[in-house]
Known about the structure:
Radius of gyration: 21 Å
Largest sheet: 10 strands, antiparallel
Amino acid sequence: xxxxxxxxxxxxxxxxxxxxxxxxxxxxxxxxxxxxxxxxxxxxxxxxxxxxxxxxxxxxxxxxxxxxxxxxxxxxxxxxxxxxxxxxxxxxxxxxxxxxxxxxxxxxxxxxxxxxxxxxxxxxxxxxxxxxxxxxxxxxxxxxxxxxxxxxxxxxxxxxxxxxxxxxxxxxxxxxxxxxxxxxxxxxxxxxxxxxxxxxxxxxxxxxxxxxxxxxxxxxxxxxxxxxxxxxxx
Length: 234
């Protein structure tokens, strides 16, 4: 149940409707799985444009600040994306990868969710230092809009068949509950040992810091995090 004039998710008996369509202008991608490969590492020439939606009636409960009034609100999420993945020089193995997405979310009045992936800091600091909580928690999803983009370039393959792909990312979030929007960046490097079957990724990314200032939640700079991960697919 929501507090302080903010919508909260609730369980209802209404049905959700969702759909996604895309146009594949060059090579075709397989849609047997609910996700795409991300990059074909120079083996395909792909140019897609897609759009989708998700809607569920009476999915959030909104309570006024004084707690006297409560109303159910609908969820409506819209999204669109552009994806390009293509070889640049097949002999050398170079390739280009580009993705841009736009999301417009309505989860109810002032709804927002802070997420800290693999966050080890269970004790939150004071809200005048970090409103989102401790560790790497940050405003991740909520009523408002998100613009995301990524650009990668696969370097010429090495003699042993492995390859490096440096990339950059940028994310712009503008949530209704926060007074200030945020822009965050990332720079990383993929090392493909055997394509997507075995790879390493090292990335540095920024995250926004928000604090409570009176009745507002305002931006208070950024902090960074370094992520090292491996992916093995058999």
